[in-house]
Amino acid sequence: MCKKRAFVFDTNFIIENLNLNEVVANLSEEFTVYVTQVSIDERISQKYLELKNKYEKLTSLTDEYRDIASILITTPPDRRFEAEKELTQKGYIDLFGKHIIPFSSDNATFSKILDRVFKKVPPFLSVDGASDKGFKDSLIWFSLLEFFKSNGEDEVVFITND
After folding, report:
1. CA-CA-CA-CA torsion for 6, 10, 13, 19, nearest 10 degrees?
2. Which residues contact 101 (CB under 8 A, 6 or more apart)?
3. Digit-coded pLDDT (tens) for 34-92
């Protein structure tokens, strides 16, 4: 029997693969499939921004058509977001179970990431005027390093679509 290896999804891969259940099922024969909490939180953030945009559109329409119509918002945005957040987290727990890689938000981790930002160590770009894009990638990377140094498999495949 061949030894199992870890397979970890990046957020972009998750977004672009709408049938994630099927992908995970297929990979599970050969790999232990993981996702990072950072990727889950990023998906939750994206859903929050989509929801925020919808509520802003409702507010704009209410103002624009105040003289001919009224819009009743039955669920406040904060309650709707909390429900969506819980549903999203539960979906990932149902799919990945105990294979969600936590993120340590301690000062040591944050200091390591800031050091990479300042020194422009990949994924941060060292070209003049480059942004600090890569922060979430660094969070994911450090989560993986920390987790697999003391847990799980010895071989890890990390996949992203960008």
Report:
1. 60
2. 8, 34, 35, 36, 37, 143, 144, 147
3. 999 999 998 999 999 999 999 999 999 999 999 999 989 999 999 999 999 999 999 99
